Amino acid sequence: MSFFQKWKPVAAMIFVEFALAVVNALFKKVLSGGMSQLVIATYRFSIAAIFLTPIACLLERNFISNLTGRVVCSLFFSALLGGTLTQYFFLIGLKYTSTTFSCAFINMVPINTFVMALLLGQEKITIKCKSGRAKALGTLCCLGGALILTLYKGMPLISKPASEAHEVNHSTKNWIVGSSFLFAGSLVWSSWFLIQAKIGKEYPYQYSSTAIMSLLGAIQSAILSLVIDRNTSTWFLKGSLEISSVIYAGIVGSGLCYVVMSWCVKKKGAVFTSAFSPFIQIFAAVIDICILHEQIHLGSILGSILVIIGLYILLWGKSKEAEILKDSLATEKNGQATLPVTSSPPCT
């Protein structure tokens, strides 16, 4: 394997995380200017659907013939959880906090998904195994980090002039409100992964399913926006920043990034792809400090460190478990196993 082929997935995932950090920074800027969260979501999903539909028609020409009523119903709830509600909660949380802080809750999604799968019986923890202990420890670390992020703001870490600090500083009340919405958004997004896993088995067309989900998400966001706020003036984009933000978020954030992540999952697996999620927070911190001039607090740093450590411990446990299961299946296939293969891999 050449050097370029070896490092291409790594470079691709770094690009994805940087692009998503830019999306969050742009949204923070337009939200501060008064743009509606649901209007942002509606435009973003609409542009993503327009961008992905030609790709789906080109690469997945048989997707319509396999589109059943059951699949459409599943995609509707997938759009509601993974699109409309996730965007709404995250954007409200982003408005009340900062780009770096909101990205910390994105890192919690794999942990939340694992806990939900554990409660639903889709995952198991075997404490006797190293992989089981790693998954348990990673979950506890991440939950501890989430509590610190939500309940402890801490002292500011960057000295700023009094006038500038007054502009960017968030009250403790707003911080807790924003944290609550961000945590709710991470829970809703985590539940989407469980639903999407079932959809993928019934309807294995990634581009078309995402295009349909984006279209349904745009419709849901538009209806919810009209119910909450009937002021039609909020639908008119003001200035080049709002226009460029929704176009960039739709094409790059919901279009290209999804295509690249799907390619990386296919090439290197889900664990490899998930391992890059903390990079979005690093890029967001650089953008926050250098461009948006946001304040960084001690609670954000401590909580984020615990979340990232917990994430990598969990991913290591999952990776170790996958290796053990793969070796066990290979041994069974060669007729060397003495025990039947079960859903749980043997311990090491």
From TrEMBL:
Domain EamA, first and last residues per copy: 11-150, 178-315
UniProt-annotated location(s): Membrane
Domain of life: Eukaryota
Transmembrane stretches, start-end: 41-59, 71-92, 104-122, 134-155, 175-195, 207-227, 247-265, 272-292, 298-316
GO cellular component term, pick one: membrane
Alphabetical list of InterPro entries matching this protein: EamA_dom, EmrE-like, WAT1-related
Membrane topology recorded in Swiss-Prot or TrEMBL: Multi-pass membrane protein
Keyword Methyltransferase part of the UniProt annotation: no
Molecular function as annotated in GO: transmembrane transporter activity
Alphabetized Pfam families for the sequence: EamA
Keywords: Membrane, Transmembrane, Transmembrane helix
Similarity comment: family membership: Belongs to the drug/metabolite transporter (DMT) superfamily. Plant drug/metabolite exporter (P-DME) (TC 2.A.7.4) family.
Protein name: WAT1-related protein
Organism encoding this protein: Nicotiana attenuata
